[in-house]
Amino acid sequence: MSPAWIAALAGAADEAGVRFIDAPVAGTLPPAEQGELVMLVGGDAKDIDTARPALDAMGKATHHAGPVGAGIATKLVVNGMLAAQEAALAELLATVEALGHDRARAFEILCETPIASPMLKNYGKLMLDGTDDVLFPVDGILKDLGLIADAAGKAEQPVPVTRGTHDAFTLAQDAGLGDRNQTEILRVYENK
Question: Which of 60, 79, 123, 140 to pair with 181, CA 20 to 30 A apart?
Answer without folding.
Answer: 60
